[in-house]
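Review box. Two proteins, two foldings.
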Amino acid sequence: MESSRYSQILNYSLWMIFIIGLGYLKLNFHELWKDEWQAWFVARDKNVFEIFSFLYYEGHPGLWYFFLKPFTYFSDGANDIFLISLAHWITVAAGMYLLFIKFRLPIVFKILFALGYFLSFEYGLVNRGYSLVVLFSFWAAWLISLGEYNKKHLAWVLFLMCQTEVYGVMMGLVFGIFLYLENSKESIQTFLKTPAIKGLSAGFLVFLISVFPRSVGHVAKTSAKEWDFFDKILVSFQGNLSNTYLPGSTLDTFTYGWSAIGLCLSILLLGALYFVFKDQKNLLYATMTFTLGMMIFSLFFFMGGIRQWGMGFVFFMALLQIRNLDFVKEKIVSIIIFWISSIGVFYGFKAIQEDIKIPFTNAKEVGEFIEAKVPEKVPVVAINKFECTPVIGYAKRKFYELPSGVEFSFFKWVDKIYLPSEGELKLFTKYKGVGGIVIITPKVLDPQRYPNAKLWQKFDQKNYKNENYYLYSLPLK
């Protein structure tokens, strides 16, 4: 009894230490990048119905945007960073509550998982909706592990999981397969009528209606790399295994492609996953099905990168809760999990250290410069909305785009970059009734195309994403 109480106090203490430390890093060191600002601007500047109709441009379901919406009501322009961080911090805290308080994993693995690259950095520090996948996958795994649980409770969890990310949908479908295998004595007709499957089916339908990329070329335009089909197979295989379970053990697969070492590690990891779940066949089928599904999705729809591939590690953690590991008796399995999670901790610390020392982009610096140096009455025209969106957040003002000549805060992934002529820019300046404008661009302007645009300030200092900015002044005369 005393031991159980001590364990509970320890779990709560570790949970509090983790979320407080993460909150401190978020507010004091993390620079928000374009995807973080994009979701906030969509939630802030569109109503609920407009958000729903905008989702197929985003390629993400609506839950993150709708979750952000109430926080936007408190926005005054100057406190957006705090509100974004707070909203995301709440989702992370909830997911970590399940890990530390509800999961029956050995405490050493709880600590290693929490400090690992994905939970601490990609889904912890970076303010994106992937944290909701963590929350609902952990939630579903915890309910399933209870054996006796409220069936409608699980139905709602699976429904909401399908509104997080496409990877949440994949997890939900695999959880559905697992539940069927666990209840194989039931007929398929009876099983399809269970609350969990009804919730999952409804969630999947809403996902398809809201997110399915109806814009021509949407999926293709979200992929930045071109490989032949054989290379895609190897990149998908390595990315969803060695990059997922041993981040940092090889060079980033998306950037540098596959390697012999990476493929060997991936084969080794596939064997490790088999060994971890081999004594519980249904869990083995679940992890292999999800891994295969991730590879197929990478191969035919969106290759992704370590942020997306990390969903495989999240699902792995969730399945371990259902597995109920005996740390003392299952020494080899414990060693395998310790090996995998330790690598993640090292890479996680490295990522956080880089986030503290090196700015993610130069968006914050240029945004603060514009806020301090450019009067409100002087329009700022952005060339390339996609790259300039994070600067808007730090400048605390909207920029203008051409040819429409209207203000914007967010972008559409399918938008093409419009390069206005100097004549168009001067016509816009005259229309606004000002003596000149400021142009912001991620690349140096062609002096022959813009002979009267004067480079005012450049922001090309070292940054993690190599995203630089240049400010030009263009007088009307």
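Next protein.
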Amino acid sequence: MPSQHLSHTHLRFAAILLLLVTLSALCVVYTTFKNRQLFIELQSLQTEATRQQIQLGQLLLEESTWSSLAMIEQVASAELNMEVPNPEQLVIAERDKH
């Protein structure tokens, strides 16, 4: 009888160990899967950040172009029919010193 009790104890112990090893393996599989998902998301976000950095650079360049004096003068003359005044047409206003 004691040998039979010992074998039941061993079987129970082996079953518990098998359950723990199986749970551990499932946890490894889940962690690996989640890690891959997060890595793919990270790569996607990094690609989007790079795209936005490029777009920002393009917008800053465009802003610089539009704010240049030559561009302002060109748009003013072409679209608004404005022209640079002659020196005789200039009036200098002085500030009242009171």
